Amino acid sequence: ANEGAATSSQSVRPAVITFGSSVQEFLDALEGKCATAVVRDLEPSLASVSEQRQIDCEGFDYFGAPRLAEFVFGDDRLVLVWILTEEGEHARLERAFTAEFGPPTHQASVVTAYADDNAGIRKDRPEAGFYAPELSNRYRAFFDAAVARDLENAG
After folding, report:
1. Distance CA 123, CA 89 (A)
2. What is d(CA 12, CA 6) in angstroms, rounded to the nearest whole number?
3. Residue 86: pLDDT over 70
4. Separation CA 79–CA 90 (nearest Å)
5. What DSSP character marks residue 109?
C-alpha cells in the first residue's frame, strides 16, 4: 500500500463539494463546516455567466487546519472552489494530490495541475483548486499557457 502519502484516508477533494449545487443547497451542506459563511455577489468573471456569487467559508478544515474556502457559483451552480493554503505547504499538497490523481498533467512555476481530475495547486498564491467539468477546457488552456510561459522565460 501507499503508506503515508496522504495525511488521512480522506480525499484531497473535500467530500462536501458537489458541482452544480445551488447557493442555498450548498449553504445547507456546509452547515457546521465553517466558523462563518458569507455570501457575496461578484462581478461575473466566468465566461457565459450572468450572475456570479461566492460563499466565503472561514474555518474550513482542510489538511488538518482551518482555512478560508471560496465556493464560486455561476448562475446559482457551484462551479469553482479555492481553498487557501500556506506558503511552504505546496510539496505536501503535491504529494497528496499525486498519490490520489497520479502524476500532474502540468508543472509550471505558478501551478501544479491535475487537469484530468479538474484540480490544481497554485504556487503564485498558495491555494488548492477544484473546478466543475464545464470549466475544464478553460483551465487546461490556462495550465498550457503557464507551462509555455515558463519555457519562453527559460529560453
Report:
1. 10
2. 8
3. yes
4. 23
5. S
Question: Residue 56's pLDDT is what?
Answer: 98
Helix count (H) and strand count (E) of the chain?
Answer: 3, 8
pLDDT in tens, 2-26: 333 444 457 999 999 999 999 999 9
On the 0-12 / 13-18 / 19+ scale of CB atoms within 10 A, 133 is exposed
- Please, what is the Cα angle at 48 between 18 and 117, to 5 degrees? 40
- Predicted TM-score (pTM) of this structure: 0.90
Query: Edge-to-edge strands of the sheet including 65-74?
Result: 36-42, 52-62, 65-74, 77-84, 127-131, 119-122, 111-114, 106-107
